[in-house]
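As a warm-up, study this chain.
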Amino acid sequence: MVRHCKERPYWTLRLRLNLSEKLRAMTELPKDDAGYLNHTSIPNYFKPLKKLFDMCDVTIPWKRVYATYPELDNVTESRGWSKGKIVKMLRHARDLMDRVLVLASSGVRAGSLDLAWGDVTPVYLIDGRLVPDPGPGDHKIACAALRVYRGSSECYTTFITPEAHRALQEYGHDIWRELRGREAGPADPIFIRSKGAPVRASEKLLEKRIRRMVTLARLHDPEGGRVRRHKVPLMNGFGRFFNKVGKEALSHDSPLAPLRKKEYMMGHQGTMPLDQNYFKTDVLELAAEYVNIVPDLNIDDSERLKQSNKRMADNIEDG
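Now compare it with the structure written out below.
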């Protein structure tokens, strides 16, 4: 094919244009038709071809092909999970692993759950100040810092609620005691398979567990079409829940600074292009911003009633 395309470049272009026309016609079919194709899928048919041609020095005017793509006017409007639906999910939790609320309380992506116990650091509230190491004694945990993508260029820090940290510690204690007869070490993976050797749980396994709870709670209703489409993404719905809660929370800081900090907590670069270079913030400053939204992120009603946004904000000083 590559040899033929080099010898007949115009034929190659016409072939790509005809393919694009055929795919576009499929996007205009009714959604319940077996041949229906979503608009967003069209580029996927051309990406491997473009990669092949680029590597083999086959030159065609790709802009003419791109110009034939249909406008993205049928993208499904999706939203995040609500607190009520997360509560319904947890009613069908099979074990402690299902009850760990890392996704909802931190906004991390499912692919970032490849975590070790050393990536979790409690942050304590002592005399109105946030400190990472309060020394001996029984101290109140305000939140826990979560180091995501450690060792990579995409590494960033976010947080989980005391509620999520408590569930995480309970799960870790039970699963490691049961499988290894010891407490987990800093290098040990957090999420492991519940049977057999303590092997790190794959993203696919974690997604399967979430899907099971969602299905049993009957929270996913198909919108129709050949492919089951849902208004709430299975895994990303937790990140959208976190983002919505964070953006709606009140803050004593200037309006723009909290938005930037909450974008950092989700691994984003900030609200403006220069943020990543000129707007730097300390982990404890991020923690101070995070604890303001802890009551709204708590899933258990009893946890939420113990706190209020105003009391948490008034008791915490910078530094």
